[in-house]
Amino acid sequence: MTGEMKAVSGAPTLTREIFLTRTLLGWGGLFFLTLLFFLSACTRIQLPEATGVQTGLASWYGADFHGRPTSSQEIFDMYDLTAAHRTLPFGTRVMVTNLKNGKSVVVRINDRGPFVRGRIIDLSYAAAKAIDMVIDGVVPVRLEVLEMGRGDKAALQREMRPRRTEEIKGKLAVQVGAFVQRSNAQRLAAELRRRGFKKVVIVEYKTRQAVYYRVRVLCRNRSAAEKTAARLAQAGYTPIIFGY
Question: How far apart are alpha carbons 2 and 140 in whole angstroms?
Answer without folding.
Answer: 47
